[in-house]
Amino acid sequence: MAFSLYLLYAGYRFYRYYLWVSGQSNVYAPKFPSVEAFLPIGALTALKHLVLTGQFDAIHPAGLAIFIAVLLAAFLFRKGVCGWVCPVGLISNLFEGLGRRFGLSFCLKGWPSIPLYSLKYILLSFFLYIILFRMDGQSIAAFMSSPYNMLVDIKMLLFFIKPSLTTVVFLVVITSLSIILRNPWCRYLCPYGALLGVMALFSPIHVKRDETLCINCKRCTKICPACIEVHKKTAVRTPECQGCMECIGVCPVKNCLGLNTLLGIKPSPLGVAALTITLIFGAWILASVTGHWESAIRPEMLRNLFLLTGGHVMHP
User: Fold this and answer.
1) What are phi and psi of 134, to 5 degrees?
2) How far apart are the C-alpha atoms of 147 and 195, rounded to whole Å?
3) pTM higher than 0.90 for the full model?
């Protein structure tokens, strides 16, 4: 909830920046770099550029810094960003709670769910194939310096404040589905979550269940936003685990459910959540200190580019 409130503030600050860039206001409002967290595709491109050239993205540096921190958090602490930070996950859980209140929410399990689960991995594979295998260093450099990439954060904002009919229909459908089908976006469609799930497969941390203490109350399974049948597992290592640790919180038997590591250390859920959030904030501090947080592109240049193109820049 706290992160969602922060992101609402970031969105408000960015909207004021947009008004200045688009010429609707003469009062300059600096860009709020945190909004670049919503540009994972561009950040993946910038990460490949960093690996190939050793050069940090100068256009959307905050996006790359956050992206690296999120990947590292998924590797170390599973998908804690999905469970503790992502505002989309919060919204999905709110609509799921509404569905539960009226007895509408259910989990689709078994074979019928497999084709749906594959959708986000298909989307992830497409982006990985295009960026990692089809785009060479020259193509990546051309993309990163293109007008489209320079204004992509503003285009992201326009996607929400000036949505097309297709966008409205999609948002209505996915929101309505969230009431009756548990977390459809997170479970079936989010390629970012799919990437974090792949990273989480290598995480040293997982939820462990003590079969000798379990009373088979199934509260852990009922609360799980990813519809994982926790009460049937001795260790939860699936990439679908969001790292929210709600299952541990509702377990009525002490020490039945808990976190475990490869070394046998049993960290506390709150400690892992705190470390996840600390890692994200640490990335912000490190990027700020090293000059990799604020864009190197002058605001006046971006404003002139937007006014020249009317914001209608096409993908290169």
Assistant:
1) -90, -30
2) 27
3) yes
